[in-house]
Design a protein that fits this description.
By secondary structure, this protein is an alpha+beta fold. The chain is built from three helices and seven strands. Helix 1 (3-14) packs across helix 2 (18-37). It is elongated and about 55 Å long.
């Protein structure tokens, strides 16, 4: 399912127009991004938790040359599915 299909599905379920559903999806995505950007996390009960923990600097290897390379520290986005989501999908 792509974004357009998701918006159509959301509009059907919530009885909103597709424009309203699109705005709601965009607002949700923006809110999650803004919170992760400042180091927070977003929990949606029954669905899951979005977080962006710091990954430490580490050593890696260039697969072509075998040379050791330092991989810089950075933040990575993670999603942990909630119990409700896991139950429904399983």
């Amino acid at each position: 399912m792509n974004k357009t299909e998701l918006i159509k599905q959301m509009a059907t379920i919530s009885r909103l127009t597709q424009a309203q559903a699109g705005d709601a999806l965009d607002a949700f995505c923006t809110a999650v991004i803004d919170e992760l950007r400042v180091g927070g996390e977003v929990s949606v009960m029954g669905f899951g938790t979005f977080s962006a923990p710091q990954r430490a600097e580490r050593q890696g290897r260039n697969p072509k040359t075998g040379e050791a390379v330092t991989i810089a520290a950075r933040r990575v986005v993670k999603f942990k599915a909630g119990k409700g989501l896991r139950t429904e999908v399983a």
